[in-house]
Design brief:
Blueprint (H helix, E strand, L loop, with lengths): L1 E3 L2 H9 L4 E5 L2 E9 L2 E8 L9 E4 L1 H7 L6 E9 L6 E8 L2 E8 L2 H14 L1
Antiparallel strand pairs: 1-6, 2-3, 3-4, 4-5, 6-7, 7-8
Length: about 120
Amino acid sequence: MEEKYTFEMMWEDLNNGYQIFYTYVRNRYLLFKTAPNCYTQKLLTDHKKNPQPKMSMLTLKRVKEMFPDMEDIEYKIIKESGPDHDKTFTAEVILNGKVLANGTGRSKKLAEMQAAKKALKE
């Protein structure tokens, strides 16, 4: 089953308490939900040529504007191993057709999250 990571999935993850790490114009950020329709963007590392505030509040509309190409990110489960009651999954994260990283976990979601973490570190 091939499923793309859509904006709606990202929005659901944010609403479920997940934090999203991303790079935007050379700066690393952490995005998380703080209240209904309100998200916090925290600057983790900054680039000297692109100074930004350390923390800012965003609406869902602004978050959508920042991620216009979400449809280009795709996660694919490439391996399942172990018995049904104790499976391990391996996922890869793909951006514009290029595999960025692989991750493993006890669920498909955890494997995808590990792959995303590795991709962001590279």
